[in-house]
Each structure stands twice: as C-alpha cells, then as structure tokens.
Design goal:
By secondary structure, the chain is an alpha+beta fold. It folds into 3 domains: 118 residues, Dna Ligase, domain 1; 148 residues, Cathepsin B, Chain A; 42 residues, no CATH class. Helices cover 28% and strands 26% of the residues. It has 9 helices and 16 strands. The strands form 5 sheets. The protein has a 5-stranded antiparallel beta sheet with strand order 1-2-5-3-4. A 5-stranded mixed beta sheet has the order 7-12-11-9-10, with helices on both faces. A two-stranded antiparallel ribbon has the order 6-8. Helix 4 packs across helix 6. The longest helix is centred in the N-terminal third of the chain and has 17 residues.
Length: 332
C-alpha cells in the first residue's frame, strides 16, 4: 500500500512571487500493522517528493507545508521554496523531523497529517525574437495589432518592454520613437528604469525577482505578465497593485517579453475580463461580480441612481444613465 495519496490539485496565487502556481494536497494513508509511525512518515515524505518533482522543469520551484490535526502546536511546518532540482528525497524529513518529534505525544496517527506542495514556474527572459527560432510566437505577435514586438540584441527585453508599456498607457508623445528605439530612446529609458529600480539583469535574463523589484518601484502601475498560447487564461505574474493608475500588460514566451497594448486584440476575442482572466465573444457569455449585471459592460458594476432608467426598446431597467448608454450602444 502506498504511504500517501493525492487529495487534489488546484490553481493558487503565490503572493511572494506574485505568480500563479499549482497546489497539491497529500494525505497519509493508515499505518500498516508492524510498521512504526515515524518509518511510515519518512517513507511517505520520500514518495511525496518524488510525486511532486515529476514533470518539473528547470524554472520550477517547490515549497511545502506540513500540518497535523492532532498536533498541539497548531502552526504548520514549512519548507521554503527552492528550485525543484534541489529538492531531494529526504528534504522534508530533515527539515520537519524536529517538528514531528516535538509533537510525538500528540501524534496519534500519521493519517492526520496533511502536506501541501506548491509548484510555481518562474519565467526568465533576456533575448530577442529570432526568425525561425520562435517562429509561431514571432509571427503571431507581428500579425496582431494589440502586441508590440520588442527587438533587442541584449538581455534587457523586460525593462525595454516596461518602458514601451509605460509610454503607451501614458500616451507619451514620443511613444513611436520609444517603441522603435529611435536615437536609442528605448535603450536609454530601459537603462534609466533599471537604475532607479536598482535592478541588475542577470546574464540568463530577467525573471520573477526582477519583476517584483520593478513592480515595487513602479507604484503607479500594475504589471501583469501573460503566458503565450493561453488566450489570457494563464497569468505568469500579477503585481496586485490595487492603487495603480495604469496597467502594463506583457506577453511572455520562452525567454522573451513583448508588450500587450490591447488584450482583446492580443487574445483574439471581443471582450476580456481582467479580473477573471477570461476571454469571451458575446456579452452574456461571461458573468462575474466585477462587471455590471445590467449593461454587462461597465466595471466596476454600475450603481443605481434615482430608481434607474427603463430602456424604451426592451423595457429593461438599467442602473443609471451611463449604464443605459452602454446597454443601448452594445445590446439594444
């Protein structure tokens, strides 16, 4: 009999890295007769690590949380995030053994233990898009009007993408010159941004640590990085800056960042819900608490004023004049 079994796997947001990952919950099976609790736990931890590491890539990080329902110390034990290739079979036991031994009297059965493993992929980007190497990505980005391709011969595609994104959302009069790097405007601004944010781009390119530093510096902006070929459903990084006045959206694929200037154009959809990361084509196709249920256009939802406004064409009651105008222009 296997010592552990998987209870379920769910998508989760990791606040430390500001990325989405997968959280898998494991439960220990009852201890067979003739086997000690500690031997069973040690064997289970080894099996658990083997399962968690299966299918990981060089950019994957793993973190673990251990908790027992019978433990008199309710705070769980933790194994800090580390590269998947540095997680060995005995890592859980070596770190959590002391926690388990402190609770030896209260550990009635190993089947009360729950272990959560969270797996996150930290993207790294540096290079240019070379014709023939990222063929599909390159061709699609060039074809879509909502994507600006960053062309560079260095490892600075992330800061370059950020300065182009900033110029776009602020409607900078020099936007076209920055986008095309005329007179090295893009290069100089990227280097200036790195200096102000105190970010050094490593040789292998920028990843989540650099994204976090840029986000901390750009307090008026919220940075979101979408994974290519997911139509906006898969978010690699989310700055979660609720006080942001501007939004910078980037597209990531195999070591390169491009700029998204229009989410609907980039993801080939009529509408895109940024709160749910969901593309859709018809107004009634997607409903959520972040969009007005009446006009299905305005976000956040419209507030009712003076009893609302009745549409003369369909007799639907809208929240206010703005809600009515959106309804009339889009649906009625």
């Amino acid at each position: 009999m296997d010592s552990v079994r998987v209870l379920g796997t769910n998508k989760t947001y990791n606040a430390r890295f500001r990325v989405y990952g997968l959280k898998t919950t494991f439960k220990f099976n009852p201890v067979p007769d003739g086997v000690s609790e500690f031997d069973w736990l040690k064997q289970g931890f080894s099996s658990l690590v083997e399962i968690a590491k299966s299918g990981t890539t060089k950019n994957d990080y793993l973190g673990f949380t251990l908790q027992s329902l019978n433990s008199k110390y309710k705070d769980p034990g933790f194994v800090a995030y580390r590269p998947a290739n540095q997680v060995h079979d005995n890592v859980l036991w070596e770190i959590l053994e002391s926690t388990i031994q402190r609770n030896e009297d209260s550990v009635k059965s190993s089947d009360t233990f729950r272990v959560e493993c969270t797996r996150v992929n930290l993207p790294v980007g540096k290079g240019r898009v070379r014709p023939g190497f990222y063929n599909n990505f390159n061709e699609e980005c060039k074809a879509r009007r909502g994507i600006v391709v960053i062309r560079n011969n260095d490892n600075l595609c992330l800061p370059r993408a950020l300065v182009v994104g900033k110029a776009n959302v602020k409607k900078d009069p020099q936007y076209q010159a920055i986008r095309k790097d005329k007179a090295k405007r893009q290069t100089l601004r990227a280097q200036k941004l790195m200096g102000k944010a105190r970010v050094q781009i490593p040789r292998e390119g920028a990843g989540v640590p650099e994204l976090n530093k840029f986000q901390d510096h750009l307090k008026k902006y919220n940075i979101t990085v979408y994974n290519y070929n997911s139509k906006g459903r898969d978010v690699y990084f989310s700055g979660n800056n609720e006080s942001a006045l501007y939004k910078i959206n980037l597209l990531y694929h195999k070591g390169h960042y491009n700029v998204i200037t229009s989410l609907t154009a980039a993801f080939a959809c009529a509408f895109y819900c940024e709160a749910c990361h969901a593309p859709y084509h018809h107004k009634g196709e997607h409903r959520c608490s972040n969009i007005c249920p009446a006009c299905q256009t305005v976000s956040p939802p419209c507030k009712e004023e003076h009893g609302g406004v009745v549409c003369p064409n369909c007799n639907m009651t809208l929240k206010n004049q703005i809600c009515f105008a959106a309804h009339q222009g889009e649906r009625c």
